[in-house]
Design brief:
Radius of gyration: 25 Å
Largest sheet: 2 strands, antiparallel
Number of helices: 12
Order of helices and strands: HHEHHHHEHEEHHHEEHH
Strand content: under 5%
Protein backbone atom coordinates (compact mmCIF):
# COMPACT_ATOMS: atom_id res chain seq x y z
CA UNK A 1 0.00 0.00 0.00
CA UNK A 2 2.79 2.46 0.88
CA UNK A 3 4.27 1.98 -2.58
CA UNK A 4 1.18 3.64 -4.06
CA UNK A 5 1.65 6.83 -2.02
CA UNK A 6 3.26 9.66 -4.05
CA UNK A 7 6.88 10.44 -3.16
CA UNK A 8 6.52 13.76 -1.31
CA UNK A 9 3.46 12.69 0.68
CA UNK A 10 5.18 9.44 1.64
CA UNK A 11 8.36 11.21 2.76
CA UNK A 12 6.40 13.81 4.75
CA UNK A 13 4.56 11.00 6.54
CA UNK A 14 7.82 9.22 7.35
CA UNK A 15 9.57 12.39 8.57
CA UNK A 16 6.68 13.28 10.88
CA UNK A 17 6.49 9.74 12.27
CA UNK A 18 10.26 9.51 12.80
CA UNK A 19 10.36 12.95 14.43
CA UNK A 20 7.57 11.96 16.81
CA UNK A 21 9.36 8.70 17.69
CA UNK A 22 12.63 10.56 18.26
CA UNK A 23 11.02 13.16 20.52
CA UNK A 24 9.19 10.49 22.51
CA UNK A 25 11.99 7.94 22.88
CA UNK A 26 15.38 9.51 22.26
CA UNK A 27 15.33 13.33 22.30
CA UNK A 28 12.75 14.62 24.79
CA UNK A 29 13.97 18.18 24.30
CA UNK A 30 13.31 18.14 20.55
CA UNK A 31 9.90 19.76 20.93
CA UNK A 32 11.44 22.61 22.93
CA UNK A 33 14.29 23.15 20.48
CA UNK A 34 12.32 22.65 17.26
CA UNK A 35 8.95 24.06 18.31
CA UNK A 36 8.05 27.53 17.07
CA UNK A 37 8.57 30.04 19.90
CA UNK A 38 7.18 33.55 20.00
CA UNK A 39 9.67 35.77 18.16
CA UNK A 40 10.35 37.93 21.25
CA UNK A 41 11.07 34.87 23.43
CA UNK A 42 14.63 34.05 24.37
CA UNK A 43 14.57 30.61 22.70
CA UNK A 44 13.23 31.78 19.33
CA UNK A 45 15.16 30.86 16.15
CA UNK A 46 14.23 31.35 12.50
CA UNK A 47 14.68 27.67 11.65
CA UNK A 48 11.73 26.89 13.94
CA UNK A 49 9.35 28.09 11.20
CA UNK A 50 10.26 24.84 9.42
CA UNK A 51 11.00 22.40 12.23
CA UNK A 52 7.77 23.02 14.13
CA UNK A 53 5.77 21.48 11.26
CA UNK A 54 7.29 18.05 11.90
CA UNK A 55 6.69 17.81 15.65
CA UNK A 56 3.50 16.76 17.46
CA UNK A 57 2.27 16.91 21.04
CA UNK A 58 0.97 13.32 21.30
CA UNK A 59 -0.03 10.29 19.27
CA UNK A 60 -3.59 11.53 18.70
CA UNK A 61 -2.28 14.83 17.36
CA UNK A 62 0.08 12.95 15.01
CA UNK A 63 -2.52 10.41 13.89
CA UNK A 64 -5.20 12.85 12.79
CA UNK A 65 -2.74 15.11 10.99
CA UNK A 66 -1.09 12.19 9.18
CA UNK A 67 -4.42 10.60 8.30
CA UNK A 68 -5.58 13.85 6.67
CA UNK A 69 -2.21 14.29 4.95
CA UNK A 70 -2.47 10.79 3.49
CA UNK A 71 -6.13 11.13 2.54
CA UNK A 72 -5.94 14.50 0.76
CA UNK A 73 -2.20 14.82 0.11
CA UNK A 74 -2.10 11.77 -2.17
CA UNK A 75 -4.76 13.30 -4.39
CA UNK A 76 -3.32 16.82 -4.52
CA UNK A 77 0.22 15.62 -5.20
CA UNK A 78 -1.05 13.58 -8.13
CA UNK A 79 -2.99 16.58 -9.43
CA UNK A 80 -0.20 19.14 -9.03
CA UNK A 81 2.96 17.10 -9.24
CA UNK A 82 5.52 16.56 -6.47
CA UNK A 83 7.44 19.84 -6.75
CA UNK A 84 4.42 22.09 -6.72
CA UNK A 85 2.83 20.11 -3.89
CA UNK A 86 5.98 20.39 -1.74
CA UNK A 87 6.20 24.16 -2.35
CA UNK A 88 2.56 24.52 -1.34
CA UNK A 89 2.99 22.40 1.80
CA UNK A 90 6.06 24.26 3.05
CA UNK A 91 4.87 27.79 2.21
CA UNK A 92 1.50 27.19 3.88
CA UNK A 93 3.21 25.73 6.95
CA UNK A 94 5.47 28.76 7.26
CA UNK A 95 2.50 31.05 6.62
CA UNK A 96 0.58 29.31 9.39
CA UNK A 97 3.50 29.97 11.73
CA UNK A 98 3.55 33.66 10.78
CA UNK A 99 -0.17 33.98 11.49
CA UNK A 100 0.29 32.32 14.86
CA UNK A 101 3.12 34.73 15.67
CA UNK A 102 0.91 37.68 14.70
CA UNK A 103 -1.90 36.42 16.94
CA UNK A 104 0.52 36.03 19.85
CA UNK A 105 1.87 39.53 19.27
CA UNK A 106 -1.64 41.00 19.44
CA UNK A 107 -2.35 38.98 22.56
CA UNK A 108 0.85 40.16 24.26
CA UNK A 109 0.28 43.79 23.27
CA UNK A 110 -3.23 43.79 24.73
CA UNK A 111 -2.04 42.09 27.92
CA UNK A 112 0.81 44.56 28.46
CA UNK A 113 -1.42 47.54 27.72
CA UNK A 114 -3.99 46.42 30.27
CA UNK A 115 -1.68 45.07 32.97
CA UNK A 116 1.83 46.52 32.50
CA UNK A 117 1.51 49.73 30.46
CA UNK A 118 5.02 50.76 31.46
CA UNK A 119 6.60 47.78 29.62
CA UNK A 120 7.46 48.23 25.94
CA UNK A 121 7.49 45.43 23.37
CA UNK A 122 10.83 46.74 22.15
CA UNK A 123 12.45 46.35 25.55
CA UNK A 124 11.00 43.33 27.35
CA UNK A 125 12.49 42.36 30.73
CA UNK A 126 14.65 39.25 30.55
CA UNK A 127 12.34 37.33 32.87
CA UNK A 128 9.33 38.02 30.66
CA UNK A 129 11.27 36.98 27.54
CA UNK A 130 12.01 33.65 29.24
CA UNK A 131 8.37 33.26 30.27
CA UNK A 132 7.32 33.73 26.66
CA UNK A 133 9.13 30.49 25.81
CA UNK A 134 5.99 28.69 27.00
CA UNK A 135 4.26 30.02 23.87
CA UNK A 136 5.42 27.17 21.69
CA UNK A 137 3.60 25.93 18.58
CA UNK A 138 4.08 22.47 17.06
CA UNK A 139 2.25 20.38 14.49
CA UNK A 140 1.58 20.01 10.77
CA UNK A 141 -2.00 21.25 11.09
CA UNK A 142 -1.39 24.52 9.21
CA UNK A 143 -0.16 22.67 6.12
CA UNK A 144 -2.79 19.94 6.48
CA UNK A 145 -5.64 22.45 6.65
CA UNK A 146 -4.19 24.12 3.54
CA UNK A 147 -4.25 20.75 1.71
CA UNK A 148 -7.85 20.28 2.79
CA UNK A 149 -8.65 23.69 1.31
CA UNK A 150 -6.84 22.76 -1.92
CA UNK A 151 -8.92 19.59 -2.24
CA UNK A 152 -12.13 21.54 -1.69
CA UNK A 153 -11.20 24.14 -4.30
CA UNK A 154 -10.04 21.55 -6.84
CA UNK A 155 -12.89 19.08 -6.37
CA UNK A 156 -15.66 21.27 -4.89
CA UNK A 157 -18.53 18.91 -5.74
CA UNK A 158 -16.82 15.68 -4.72
CA UNK A 159 -19.04 14.00 -2.11
CA UNK A 160 -17.45 12.88 1.15
CA UNK A 161 -18.72 10.81 4.05
CA UNK A 162 -17.71 12.52 7.29
CA UNK A 163 -18.38 10.93 10.68
CA UNK A 164 -20.85 11.46 12.36
CA UNK A 165 -22.87 13.00 9.51
CA UNK A 166 -25.31 10.37 8.13
CA UNK A 167 -25.25 11.74 4.58
CA UNK A 168 -22.42 12.64 2.18
CA UNK A 169 -21.37 16.27 2.01
CA UNK A 170 -19.74 18.10 -0.88
CA UNK A 171 -16.08 18.99 -0.38
CA UNK A 172 -16.70 22.74 -0.68
CA UNK A 173 -19.23 22.67 2.18
CA UNK A 174 -16.91 20.47 4.23
CA UNK A 175 -14.11 23.04 3.89
CA UNK A 176 -16.42 25.95 4.74
CA UNK A 177 -17.64 24.03 7.79
CA UNK A 178 -14.07 23.60 9.02
CA UNK A 179 -13.29 27.28 8.42
CA UNK A 180 -16.37 28.25 10.42
CA UNK A 181 -15.39 25.97 13.29
CA UNK A 182 -11.86 27.40 13.38
CA UNK A 183 -13.05 31.03 13.29
CA UNK A 184 -15.57 30.35 16.06
CA UNK A 185 -12.96 28.52 18.15
CA UNK A 186 -10.36 31.26 17.69
CA UNK A 187 -12.82 33.89 18.92
CA UNK A 188 -14.40 31.95 21.79
CA UNK A 189 -11.71 29.48 22.92
CA UNK A 190 -8.43 31.43 22.92
CA UNK A 191 -6.95 29.40 25.78
CA UNK A 192 -7.81 25.86 24.69
CA UNK A 193 -4.22 25.03 23.69
CA UNK A 194 -5.04 24.69 19.98
CA UNK A 195 -3.36 27.00 17.44
CA UNK A 196 -6.55 28.00 15.63
CA UNK A 197 -4.89 30.99 13.98
CA UNK A 198 -2.21 28.69 12.57
CA UNK A 199 -4.94 26.55 11.00
CA UNK A 200 -6.61 29.61 9.49
CA UNK A 201 -3.24 31.02 8.47
CA UNK A 202 -2.37 27.87 6.55
CA UNK A 203 -5.70 28.03 4.73
CA UNK A 204 -5.27 31.75 4.01
CA UNK A 205 -1.84 31.27 2.46
CA UNK A 206 -3.15 28.24 0.58
CA UNK A 207 -6.05 30.26 -0.85
CA UNK A 208 -3.70 33.02 -2.00
CA UNK A 209 -1.34 30.53 -3.68
CA UNK A 210 -4.13 28.64 -5.44
CA UNK A 211 -5.72 31.83 -6.73
CA UNK A 212 -2.32 33.00 -7.99
CA UNK A 213 -1.63 29.69 -9.72
CA UNK A 214 -5.08 29.77 -11.31
CA UNK A 215 -4.27 33.16 -12.85
CA UNK A 216 -0.66 32.23 -13.68
CA UNK A 217 -0.67 28.51 -14.65
CA UNK A 218 3.02 28.61 -15.60
CA UNK A 219 4.18 30.05 -12.27
CA UNK A 220 7.35 28.42 -10.89
CA UNK A 221 7.45 25.76 -13.60
CA UNK A 222 5.35 24.21 -16.33
CA UNK A 223 3.51 21.06 -15.34
CA UNK A 224 0.62 20.98 -17.80
CA UNK A 225 -1.32 23.45 -15.66
CA UNK A 226 -1.00 21.21 -12.62
CA UNK A 227 -3.05 18.31 -13.96
CA UNK A 228 -0.36 15.66 -13.64
CA UNK A 229 -2.84 13.22 -12.19
CA UNK A 230 -4.94 13.19 -15.33
CA UNK A 231 -1.84 12.95 -17.52
CA UNK A 232 -0.89 9.81 -15.61
CA UNK A 233 -4.39 8.49 -16.14
CA UNK A 234 -4.02 8.97 -19.87
CA UNK A 235 -0.67 7.16 -19.81
CA UNK A 236 -2.35 4.24 -18.08
CA UNK A 237 -4.89 4.06 -20.86
CA UNK A 238 -2.04 3.96 -23.37
CA UNK A 239 -0.41 1.13 -21.43
CA UNK A 240 -3.66 -0.77 -21.54
CA UNK A 241 -3.66 -0.55 -25.33
CA UNK A 242 -0.13 -1.95 -25.51
CA UNK A 243 -0.76 -4.62 -22.90
CA UNK A 244 -3.80 -6.09 -24.57
CA UNK A 245 -2.55 -8.72 -26.96
CA UNK A 246 -4.15 -9.08 -30.35
CA UNK A 247 -6.69 -11.97 -30.24
CA UNK A 248 -5.60 -15.05 -32.15
CA UNK A 249 -6.79 -15.45 -35.73
CA UNK A 250 -8.09 -12.88 -38.12
CA UNK A 251 -11.64 -12.66 -36.74
CA UNK A 252 -12.76 -11.11 -33.43
CA UNK A 253 -15.96 -11.82 -31.51
CA UNK A 254 -18.30 -8.87 -31.04
CA UNK A 255 -20.79 -8.60 -28.16
CA UNK A 256 -23.67 -9.57 -30.42
CA UNK A 257 -21.95 -12.81 -31.37
CA UNK A 258 -21.05 -11.67 -34.90
CA UNK A 259 -17.45 -12.10 -35.97
CA UNK A 260 -15.65 -8.89 -36.94
CA UNK A 261 -12.63 -8.53 -39.15
CA UNK A 262 -9.22 -7.18 -38.10
CA UNK A 263 -10.05 -3.87 -39.79
CA UNK A 264 -13.35 -3.54 -37.94
CA UNK A 265 -11.73 -4.53 -34.63
CA UNK A 266 -8.91 -2.01 -34.96
CA UNK A 267 -11.29 0.73 -36.11
CA UNK A 268 -13.54 0.15 -33.09
CA UNK A 269 -10.59 0.20 -30.69
CA UNK A 270 -9.20 3.38 -32.22
CA UNK A 271 -12.58 5.12 -32.01
CA UNK A 272 -12.88 4.11 -28.35
CA UNK A 273 -9.38 5.40 -27.54
CA UNK A 274 -10.03 8.67 -29.39
CA UNK A 275 -13.13 9.17 -27.26
CA UNK A 276 -11.14 8.52 -24.04
CA UNK A 277 -8.45 10.98 -25.17
CA UNK A 278 -11.11 13.60 -25.84
CA UNK A 279 -12.59 13.13 -22.35
CA UNK A 280 -9.18 13.41 -20.68
CA UNK A 281 -8.39 16.57 -22.64
CA UNK A 282 -11.72 18.00 -21.47
CA UNK A 283 -10.79 17.22 -17.83
CA UNK A 284 -7.46 19.03 -18.20
CA UNK A 285 -9.15 22.06 -19.74
CA UNK A 286 -12.28 22.37 -17.59
CA UNK A 287 -12.03 19.91 -14.69
CA UNK A 288 -13.74 16.63 -13.90
CA UNK A 289 -17.07 18.29 -13.06
CA UNK A 290 -17.42 19.54 -16.64
CA UNK A 291 -18.03 15.98 -17.88
CA UNK A 292 -21.51 14.75 -18.71
CA UNK A 293 -22.91 11.64 -17.03
CA UNK A 294 -22.25 9.66 -20.20
CA UNK A 295 -18.63 10.82 -20.35
CA UNK A 296 -18.06 9.95 -16.67
CA UNK A 297 -19.56 6.50 -17.26
CA UNK A 298 -17.37 6.01 -20.33
CA UNK A 299 -14.25 6.95 -18.37
CA UNK A 300 -15.23 4.70 -15.45
CA UNK A 301 -16.01 1.71 -17.68
CA UNK A 302 -12.71 2.07 -19.52
CA UNK A 303 -10.69 2.44 -16.32
CA UNK A 304 -11.93 -0.96 -15.07
CA UNK A 305 -9.68 -2.59 -17.67
CA UNK A 306 -6.63 -1.59 -15.56
CA UNK A 307 -7.63 -3.59 -12.46
Amino acid sequence: MIRNIPAVTKNLLLINILAFAASALILPGLKTTGGLHFFLASDFHLYQFVTYMFLHANFQHLFFNMFALWMFGCVMEQVWGSKKFLIYYMVCGIGAGLMQEAAQLINLSMTLQQTYPEISLLNLPKGLAMQLNYWTTIGASGSVYAILLAFGMTFPNERMFIFPLPIPIKAKWFVLLYIGIEVFSALTLPGDGVAHMAHLGGMLFGFIMIRYWQKHPGAYYNHNNGYGFFNNLKQNFEKMKQKKAEPQGNMHAEQGGRQESDWEYNARKKANQDEIDRILDKIRASGYDSLTKEEKKKLFDSSKDYD
